[in-house]
TrEMBL record:
GO terms for biological process: carbohydrate metabolic process. Residues 717-806 form the Glycoside hydrolase family domain. It comes from Flavobacterium sufflavum. Residues 216-316 form the Glycoside hydrolase family 2 immunoglobulin-like beta-sandwich domain. One of its GO terms (molecular function) is hydrolase activity, hydrolyzing O-glycosyl compounds. Residues 860-881 are annotated as: Disordered. Belongs to the glycosyl hydrolase 2 family. This is Glycoside hydrolase family 2 protein. Residues 634-692 form the DUF4982 domain. Residues 1-22 form the signal peptide.
Length: 1003
């Protein structure tokens, strides 16, 4: 070791000794849970900000708490109550806070929040979406004096920014449920005069601590961990400062400790301090593997530890290239949900305990979803951190509505994106930053990219927007309800299925005998449009699940491994039924694969089957849609979802036969007669080997009730805010759920708990009612804990059914106004899927043959647009002959031609295709969400000619509603030409893989 190394080692030992000494003397916490002990008044009150104001008659609440949350799912989104509400709290600072900095952090206030401390105005936040922090050091009184904080909130839909008079684009009645007040967590930070800043740019202008990894070697489990922490000196003297970093694994074992270089900080100076170290034996964060490390960044000033920041983070490698997404060097096809950012629940809105966020988000993973695209609004930190724990990839928006904007409203969007990136850049689950729910200009995209590059240059995240199909700046894109392919940046569908269906409706043969698609719409949309055909919004469970499977097929067909241009998947809208932007007969959106209380619909299980794998299927599965408890004489089609090659149905031991396969994953058995007993589906591979099965048995007559609780891991907290889900089932005398039961249930809650309620179809959706029915044999309610540890007793009764009782014990917790118990303390990570596999994620299925030249009988100047990897450009023949010829890079045996023809949803084209003048296809193209694959007679050649034989035909085979975006008409452009048009957006040519050679596989 050289002299420099010896001196460094000696200084490190000395520093460790001094740090231990300093830590022994230090007793104060730097971050406190500030959620407890608030008072609430709904309505504006004069002088409520004053310290001597009498608030004894105000309501006692613990945060997070939205003052109108009890209206969630009872009222239409546009009817949720709005107005001014005040929150107040009296507190003392700890003794150790003397002469220190004091900051308050709000995870969010809706829409506007004015903060007063001891009667003095401290700051106003107005965007209603993002966290913000305020330095209240100059306003607070030292121990033992009391402090009063008062927050005036206003959630008016029409709220305008006071300085500019501009509204906020995302304060929108279509999608942003208006839960007013303080619906998220609040924290208090106490820091020394030399401190690591907070990642709260609004008001504070600071960026906090940035933790990221570089130099990945996934195979050898190595990476360099880097810490960059912004430090500010508010002492009156120059100081010497450096970082000491500790990295601990999920078991709390320290796996690394290292120092950064010492730097000098002048008074009021702010600098970034850095430290890094190469680590090995790392566990990389992955889909369904929420492995997290605790990185502690300790600020050492003049050899004394003065400030400590803990970052819970994970390390993973992400790349976006070749039209695909790579996670830890393995291609992953995106499949998941476009979920409303409010992520709300009945009666509590979005103000859920942290464990409940984990429960909901982990269900997305358990349905084999790997991505949640939060819609329009930045998700609150609790959901962001929850996705880290459960291993769910996130697409994080900032704030927008449905179009690009200019002026102050665009500035608001860039400011929100800046704040959101700074606040969430340490969360490994975020892989995408979304700049808009529709395309934005290239200039605006460049602005957003610059923000990402400035504040998160090393996070391994792509920034883009919905659409952006021809952008040279965006790093990902993708339309809604269409299929896009790319050889450049990944394209994934931002919303690919928007249908709705109430969980209550199994099918047309089950009580209440809902005929598929009936019900119409009971309203005009808040945006002024009307639904003329609402059948897609009034599905039963059978039809809704089938639609999920059918819609996924177009994306699966274009998956990685199918060529040079591929689809990177897409997200279904939505995961859980939402209090926003509904279309059908009910007053809330029912597009979810689970209902508002997260009870699965059949679509949940369908997704489990079709999404089981990173790209290719990894575990063959089968699911029978529906139940097996019909009346005698019922005959119906049975639909089965499976990734098997073939599926056989067996009723009471008798083989019904093999199902008719469609859209790859759907197997239909026509006119199956109900017979009480058992119905079983068995899936087979190509060799005829049984590889998966599912079975449903007929339940007996309703006998009694069964109660089950779903609680916080480690026990329900006695904090007057924690919740437990209580599930009630109608069961037969053997304990089996009766799937057709609709009995009314009466609930009674006693002890240290409070009945909150659930949801069902009926008056006010039964919100808050202690009497509500089961639907399809099951329902759920919420029970809230009191602030005293003890026992909650829940009793459920129903006429002619055996009653059930349940006991829940609550656990004492720290309820101080400056609490040491954090909302997410001790919540476990979900790691069931294990680390990223080191096997290939897909097998290549065909070879793409490149085009080197093209010749058109007309409009030659645009001919190359028919294969330019740009879905917003096309060639069409105009007034000339509808014929075009392609020269391939080499002679090849062409067996498939893939086309994207304008009007793909509504047009069928009669085509003739020839290879070296030999006819290989003559027929009519089907409609699709974008691309059609035409199987042609395998023919060797180098020139391929495509010719339109006559006018295209209109088709309504695909009855999708709500098509929006730039390509609403499927790319069709109006023309005055009387010549039949052959508009080609993209064309691709494929040859089969030579099975005599090694099968090509790609990771």
């Amino acid at each position: 070791m050289n002299l420099k190394g010896v001196l460094y080692a000696l200084s490190f030992v000395t520093l460790l000794a001094n740090t231990v000494c300093a830590q022994d003397k230090k007793s104060a916490r730097e971050k406190y849970n500030f959620n407890y002990g608030w008072k609430l008044n709904v309505g504006d009150v004069e002088e409520a900000q004053n310290t001597n104001f009498n608030d004894k008659l105000w309501t006692n609440v613990n945060l997070p708490y939205s003052w109108n949350q009890g209206e969630a799912f009872r009222l239409d989104i546009s009817h949720l109550s709005t107005g001014v509400a005040w929150y107040r709290k009296i507190f003392q600072l700890p003794k150790e806070a003397a002469n220190k900095k004091v900051f308050i952090e709000f995870e969010g206030v809706r829409q506007m929040g004015e903060v007063y401390v001891n009667g003095k105005f401290a700051g106003r936040h107005e965007n209603g979406a993002m966290a913000f922090g305020i330095d209240i050091s100059a306003f607070v009184n030292p121990f033992p004096q009391e402090n009063v904080i008062a927050v005036k909130t206003d959630n008016d839909w029409r709220y305008k920014e006071k300085a500019t008079g501009s509204g906020f684009q995302w304060n929108d009645k279509n999608f942003n449920a208006n839960y007013g007040g303080i619906p998220k967590n609040v924290f208090l930070h106490i820091k020394s005069k030399v401190y690591q800043t907070l990642p709260l740019y609004s008001f504070l202008g600071t960026t906090g601590t940035y933790v990221y990894a570089t130099d990945f070697n996934i195979a050898e489990k190595k990476a360099t961990v880097n810490v960059s922490s912004q430090v500010k000196n508010e002492e009156a003297k120059t100081v010497s400062a450096q970082l000491k970093v500790s990295v601990k694994d999920m078991q709390g074992k320290e796996v690394a400790s290292f120092l950064g270089n010492a730097i000098s900080l002048a008074p009021n100076e702010m600098k970034d301090l850095k430290a890094s170290k190469a680590l090995q034996d790392l566990n990389f964060w992955s889909w369904g593997y929420g492995y997290l490390y605790t990185v502690t960044s300790e600020l050492v000033v003049d050899n004394q530890s003065v400030d400590k920041t803990e970052i819970r983070t994970g390390f993973r490698k992400a790349e976006f290239k070749n039209g695909m997404v790579y996670l830890n060097d393995r291609v992953i096809m995106m499949h998941g949900y476009a979920q409303r950012t409010s992520n709300e629940w009945p009666s509590i809105g979005m103000s859920a305990p942290a464990w409940l966020s984990d429960y909901s988000n982990s269900l997305m993973v358990k349905s084999n979803g790997n991505l949640v695209r939060w819609m329009h609004i930045t998700p609150w930190k609790q959901d962001v951190e929850s996705c880290d724990r459960v291993g769910l990839i996130q697409a994080m928006p900032a704030g927008d509505s449905e179009k690009d904007v200019e002026g102050r409203r665009w500035e608001q969007r860039t400011e929100l994106m800046r704040d959101a990136i700074i606040y969430n850049r340490n969360n490994p689950s975020i892989l995408f930053y979304e700049c808009g729910n529709e395309s934005i200009s290239e200039a605006h995209m460049s602005e957003m990219l610059a923000i990402r590059n400035q504040y998160d240059p090393f996070g391994g995240r792509a920034i883009g927007s919905r659409e952006m199909l021809d952008s040279k700046v965006a790093e990902y894109g993708g339309e809604m309800l269409y299929i896009n392919k790319s050889a450049r940046i990944p394209f994934w569908a931002t919303e690919y299925s928007r249908d709705e269906g109430l969980r209550k409706y199994w099918d047309e043969f089950t009580t209440p005998f809902h005929k598929e698609g009936t019900g119409g719409t009971s309203h005009s949309n808040v945006n002024g449009t009307k639904v003329t055909d609402a059948s897609a919004y009034n599905h039963n469970q059978d039809a809704h699940a089938i639609e999920d499977v059918v819609r996924w097929y177009d994306y699966w067909e274009a998956r990685p491994g199918t060529g040079d241009r591929v689809s990177s998947g897409g997200v279904n809208i939505i995961f859980s039924d939402s209090n926003t932007h509904y279309r059908g007969q009910e007053n809330y959106r029912r597009s979810g694969e689970v209902d508002p209380m997260r009870i699965p619909k059949d679509g949940f299980y369908a997704h489990q089957v079709i999404w089981d794998g990173w790209v290719d299927t990894e575990k063959p599965a089968v699911h029978i849609i529906g139940h097996w408890n019909y009346e005698k004489g019922v005959t119906k089609d049975i639909n089965v979802v499976s990734t098997a090659y073939a599926v056989e149905l067996i009723v009471n031991g008798k083989k019904i036969g093999k199902g008719v396969q469609s859209k790859q994953f759907l197997f239909t058995f026509k006119n199956v007669a109900f017979q009480a007993g058992s119905i079983k589906a068995i899936g087979y591979d190509k060799s005829g080997k049984a590889i998966c099965e599912d079975e449903i048995k007929t339940a007996g007559k309703p006998f009694g009730l069964k109660l089950t609780s779903i609680e916080r891991p480690g026990g329900m907290l006695a904090n007057a805010n924690d919740l437990a889900i209580v599930e009630v089932e109608v069961v037969d005398n053997k304990g089996n759920r009766c799937p057709t039961a609709m009995d009314m249930i009466n609930f009674e809650v006693t002890g240290q708990g409070l009945f909150i309620g659930g949801i069902a179809q009926g008056p006010d959706n039964y919100i808050g009612s202690k009497n509500l029915p089961v639907e399809c044999g099951v329902n759920r309610i919420f029970v809230k804990a009191s602030d005293l540890a003890g026992e909650i007793k829940v009793k459920a009764t129903s006429e002619s059914l055996k009653a059930a009782e349940l006991s829940i014990k609550t656990v004492k917790t720290d309820l101080q106004k400056l609490s040491l118990a954090m909302p997410s303390d001790n919540l476990p990570s979900y790691t069931a899927k294990g680390p990223t596999p080191n096997t290939p994620s897909f097998t290549k299925t065909r070879n793409a043959i490149k085009v080197t030249a093209v010749k058109a009988d007309s409009n030659q100047a645009d001919a190359e647009k028919s294969f330019d990897d740009n879905e917003l450009s096309e060639w069409t023949n105009g007034d000339g002959s509808p014929k075009i010829e392609y020269t391939l890079e080499r002679e090849a045996t062409i067996n498939q031609v893939v086309l994207k023809l304008s009007g793909w949803r509504s047009k069928k084209y009669p085509l003739r295709i020839s290879v070296d003048e030999k006819k290989v296809f003559e027929g009519i193209t089907p409609t699709s969400l974008g691309y059609v694959t035409l199987d042609v007679s395998p023919t060797k050649g180098k020139k391929v000619q495509i010719e339109l034989m006559e006018n295209s035909k209109d088709s309504n085979d695909i009855n999708l509603v709500e098509i929006t975006g730039k390509v609403d008409d499927g790319g069709l452009k109006k023309t005055n030409s009387k010549t039949p048009q052959l508009p080609i957006v993209e064309v691709e040519f494929y040859e089969p893989i030579d099975t005599l050679n090694k099968l090509t596989t790609i990771k």
